[in-house]
Amino acid sequence: MIVSVVATILATALLLRFWTQALRVRPPQQVSHFMLTVSNWLVMPLRRVLPGVGGYDWASLVGALLVVLLATTTYLLAGFGAGDVLILGIHRFLKWIVYGLLGLLFLEVIFSWINPQAPLAPFVRALNEPLLRPLRRVVPPLGGLDLTVMILVLLLWVLIALLDAVFGGLLGMP
């Protein structure tokens, strides 16, 4: 349990670091300080091997994958084979990405309801905008109500179900 919590916090910081750099969004000072403090020990050595290419911080993304794979190795103790642990680790990694996007969407909804002028609101909005923009072109606001966040949440839950079905099939689970 402790391994899972620590891995989740570290992988979240690494994925947030990747996403902010991919979108070229400057995080607020406190968020940036947290991301760098939590993840620099892993990202800096990985950057020697995996430099940023195409504007993407591959070291952060691969670091998050390594953290998830390392946390998943605890399944070896439960009798899973190494191949199954690798597949399960990739499954968990992809689900953590989707859950992170869901978390950002929920934060945006909370900020829009409670305090749209909150200091973190523009940062969260900027992180969600590339995901919401294509939907906003297709789905117009209905009476001033933007349904794209709800639609994207539903699409992400469908993606989670697809990931579960695909990886469950690979692992021989129903």
Automatic annotation (TrEMBL):
InterPro entries documented for this protein: CCB3/YggT (IPR003425)
Keyword entries, A-Z: Membrane, Transmembrane, Transmembrane helix
Membrane-spanning intervals of the chain: 58-81, 93-114, 147-171
Membrane listed as a keyword: yes
GO (cellular component) term, any one: membrane
Stored Pfam families: CCB3_YggT
Name of this chain's protein: YggT family protein
